[in-house]
Amino acid sequence: MENTSLFGRIRQSEAASGLLLVSPTAIYAILLLFAPLATVLVYSVMTDAGAGKIEWVFTLQNYVEVWTGKVYRAIMFRSLVVSMAVTLCTVLLAYPIAYFVSFHVAASKKSLWLFLITIPFWTSYVIRVFLWKVILGYNGVINSGLMSLGIISEPLQAINYNAGAMVMTLAHAYAPFAILPIFVALEKIDRSLLEAGQDLGETKLMTFWRVTLPLSMTGVIAAVLIVFIPTIGDYVTPDLIGGGKIPMIANMIEVKMLKQNEKAIGSAIAVTAMLIVALVSIVFLILNRRFLKGQK
Amino acid sequence: MSSEKPTMIEFKDVHKYYGDYHALRGITATIRAGEFFSLLGPSGCGKTTLLRTIAGFEGISSGVVLIDGKDMQNVPANVRPTNMVFQSYAIFPHMSVAENVGFGLRKDPRSKAEKAKAVEEALAMVGLKGYGGRAAHALSGGQRQRVALARALILKPKVLLLDEPLSALDKKMREHMQVELIRLQRQVGITFILVTHDQEEALVMSDRIAVMFEGEIAQLADPETLYRRPASRKVADFIGTMNFLPARVLSQSGDKVEVEAEGFGRLTLDAEQMTGAKTDAGPTIGFRPETLTILFDGQTASDRESPATVTEVVYYGDMTYYDIKLDGSDQPLRLSMRNVFGRPVLDIGTKTRVAWSPGALVLFR
Amino acid sequence: MKNPGLRVYAIGYLIFLYAPIILLPVFALNDSKVVSFPLTGFTFRWFQEMWADDSLREALTNSLIVAICASVIATALGLLAARASTRFTFPAKGGILGLIMLPLVLPEMIVAMSLLMVLLAVGVPLGKHTIIMGHVLICTPFAVAILSSAFQSLDKSLEEAAYDLGEGPISAFRLIILPLVTPGIVSSLLICFTISLDEFIIANFLGGNTKVLSAYIYGQFRFPAKVPAMLALGTILVLLSITLLSIAEYFRRRGIAKTGGKDTGGFL
What we know:
The structure holds three protein chains of three kinds. Chain A has helices at 2-43, 61-68, 70-104, 107-118, 125-136, 141-148, 163-173, 175-188, 191-199, 204-232, 236-240, 249-259, 263-295; strands spanning 47-50, 53-55. By secondary structure, chain A is an all-alpha fold.
């Protein structure tokens, strides 16, 4: 029919223009992101032949080794625990700040507060991590400061070069990432809902618990994901703060792929890391969906 | 009178599909040169789509759109002799008022000074003389609309298209701009086509109105015909308030129709009072609230009268709306009376008499 | 304020956020090789030492080249993708955009390593260009996000109004759309520049023997004697970041003011 073919032409040209416009960016991502990820996936089921060579023999041995090997499991477990601890700390510390800026700061000053919160994030990551090493180190700022003030006579050892110091450093590094999504969720809450809560006989605290918190949960879940994903793959902090003694997944990937030149095993670790990230993300996205459903 | 005006826009069996959705279903209509024409209907009826096919922002799936006798197939929006006032006004936020108004003059061969003069004149025409230097984003809603008007009219289009231009304004401003737009249309003398969902606005402003439902034109007529002789119950319901009473056609001979209506008894109507297509609901008598009058003590009807009971009273200051039931009918009827000093407002339950006239009735087949 | 407790907490939190950064200039100006209290005296010598370091200057040059190239390419790619996604519907739109935005949710180590595997397999020599490749990949999602919101806040009828008043698609883009998204382009350039300048993992693994600033600093931290000079460098970098961010924020706000939108705050 003439009608439909004319209509089809218009639609096709719309689709064609869109595809044409997006194609340079899409081709870039396919060549430099999709193809490399696919390569790693293929490597992970091949056999290491030593000296960085890959033997094209299919095997699942790499995964068996990564998933059952004691050292691998210990490192992956540590990465998971550290990044979860970081996520928990960061989000718990960030929520009151987001709440404060959204509910207690005048509208005209909100941008300024957000600006102040984001600035530290934009200063060199490597230097920031190193500064925490300097702060928390054996002869570091805290110990030397407290000693020169006469509060302690011996350097505190509990604060340096351990998983706790790593959590502290990372919680600092990802703070703005947690604050922003929670802030956005809080901003969207219709203020009259809170008045309705109190009008219906709830205290301020119970109104927060029954109205504000559930409505901001989507922001909390976004914050959890935004903090969790980069921390589990962090490389700098374990290396600098942990002094290389408490490696995480990223350090292990580096060691396998570059230092020991076992690309297949390294790829299997990388794929496993992606699986862990995907799994945790899916769990939280399902939680998010349940919260959204609850709102309807 | 108006029929002498030449044709400006002609739609011939225009269809428009969005995928499976049939947005325009065979529009055939004529819009005359120099008339104030309105496309009226509820949201989603296709009125904005139809307007945008004139502007050239929507292609059509089949049919013909002619502007001033020329087929608009494959004529892009930027060369059509139409200009548009957008619902959001689409004032370019990074330009001054004068730059906005003069935007369409970029390729105009006139000198800079002449163009500036044209801009000043256009601004004066919409009552914004001296506003040229202002930043566009600092304007109020009413001012933005005037800028949009000046920007469209400066190009001397044959047709000005207005997409719900008053919907963003408050009530006072809206009524003011209605009068302004009528004045402006008389002044420039070109065709104005207005899209609106507000029946009152359409009645006030238009020479003719096309009422649209679900992609079709249900009735195209002048405001008075539309109000007094709606072509269907749906049109009658959409424009103003109309009472309906079930009726029975007894006989039809020549230009007379014999009907029996609940509460009104036997009536003889002119054939031209009969309208609309046959529906499953059967014949219905329709009439406007103001065609019924309550008779107070001592008053007599000039035509016909019936006994009735007041069932609801709503007092509006200048008017009172009553719901009444005619004796022998359970159908509540809406009736409006202008309030007169010294005359009481009736209470619910009052037995009274109402005057009416068969000539004010419409019979829907 | 209604809730003084919350306010005290907020200020305490800001101190926690800024503590390490405040220490930067303190120890960069302290006349001691050891970063610890008590302070021993005021000096500019770490700044002079830093300034005299040739390999630092080379790393800085590398960083600037990489950051400029990466931000320009990422913004150009972001512009195309953002325009396509806000203006057109096309097949597999969700999948294509999802792939482009994927680096946002992938640990950087995995992006770096998988790209490195392919580069090694294909035999591409490592250098500035390979760092740029990686940085474009991680900067593009930010560019797309910033520019999409710039395009989205544009009323579609502005473009139609330009057609209606006699302009074609190209001149309408030039006269209306481009001026209105320019603030978005500028802030995308600045943010991509900052991200690239700061990025370490990709720069470290894809650079081969080419050292950019972040990788250079990382290397220097192994030598305690070099630390104060690095803190001096850090001080300068912090000042630079704050300046760039203020400019970016200024343009973002101007963009919002121009399109008559409401300020919702924040970069992301």
